[in-house]
Amino acid sequence: MARHVIQPNVHNRIQALDILRGFAVLGILLANIPAFSGPYWSAMASGQKHESIGLVEALTYVFVTGKFRTPLAIMFGVGLVLQYQRRIEIPRAWPWGYLKRNALLLVIGLLHVIFIWSGDILLTYAVVAFIAVWFAKLKDEVLMVLSIMGIVLITLAAAGFAYALTDPTFASMMGSESKWLTPAEEMRVFGAGTYIDQMLFRAKFAASLIVSSIVFAPAFVPYFLLGMWLGKIGFLASPSSHPKLKRWLLGLGLGLGLALNAMSFMSLGKPWSFAGYLYAEGVAGPILGIGYLTLAAVIVEETRNAVTGAIERVGRMALTAYLAQSVIATAIFYSGIGLFGKTSSSQDLLFVILIWAIVIAFCNFWMKRFSIGPVEWLWRSATEFRVLAIKVGPPTTVGGPPSTIESSASLPDSSARLDTDRPHADQSSS
């Protein structure tokens, strides 16, 4: 009996989607850097952090906090629906082949949490994908309506919860006390502890992260659905083909998004507030994130230069790049160089630029020699239970919207045409 396999597609890629994916992966480091550089998880768990908010922190609230998870979630949704369009033609490849692939992504996320860094997003998005996968067959209009309704409901719920947290009594009830998850313990473990100490800390933290990934998964589902809809209509590859939608998303994302986020300046010079953080993270941030991704899509459609080319290569190996950022950041701040808790917010921004430079240089070096990232290659080979080729030849990029396209349903490689590289039947028996 012939066994159908899904080959990694490296030809006729949609360049715009690779650039947007690279933009989202690099951008999320800006949001994550406070959790790399100092005690963070204990503040989140207790809902308390007492430092006054300065200019850099206020600007971070306005332009960064909660803004890059949305583009990344949307790109995951784009990848999911493109994977559906490819796999639906293969017997038993949808949804079961995809679910197997996504389960392996969940394992990668869990390994990331335990062995590298506690702030992994792959675990959460894999959980969300297990929900969103069942929406892939819906019509474009249904996906659009469900995504809009979901975003409105989630935003209102987050706004209500943030407002409730302004009540000190309610805020104290929501804060959790932990004997091991404290700023002092984070400083001891990540500032001066051994790798084993850090791994044990992360293993403890993994349990709460798994629970939170399940609890908060519904908050990301509408953005997956939005990405699935935008992927089906080809908007992100060619915004000019949808002028009304482009104007609407830019107006909502940048107009309303910037207005909502400007309120974060009200925190300037005041003690940190968990209610304010939740507002930036769950209310104002995602709206502006939609604007960021739309603006990037518009710019990418009209611009091709050395910068977009470099970011494109990051997008082509985005899973590798995402994990590499964690490896480099933990080497800088944890007991490698040991800067944990010793840097200011302004200094953290300089380290973001340094990490970007290293990751971009590595991705460009790698993609000149191989056609798929190393982690992507391992992931795909494990999915297919066979060793896939890693050096197949240079890709051919395209800029317009695809008619039929394929991709992975996560960070890497969601940007190629199906019609030029269809999956074939492997003649080995199964």
Would you kindly provide a written description of the structure presented here, covering whatever features stand out?
The protein is 66% helix and 4% strand. The chain has 430 residues and is mainly alpha-helical. The strands form three sheets. The chain has a two-stranded antiparallel ribbon. The longest helix is centred in the middle third of the chain and has 39 residues, at 195-233. It is globular and about 55 Å long.
Q: State the end-to-end CA separation.
A: 6 Å
Roughly how many Å is the radius of gyration? Answer: 21 Å
Number of helices: 16
Secondary-structure element pattern, one letter each: EEHHHHHHHHHHHHHHHHEEEE
| Unreliably modeled segments | 1-10, 395-410, 412-430
Share of helix, binned:
55-70%
* Strands, count: 6
Largest sheet: 2 strands, antiparallel
Strand content: under 5%
Shape: globular
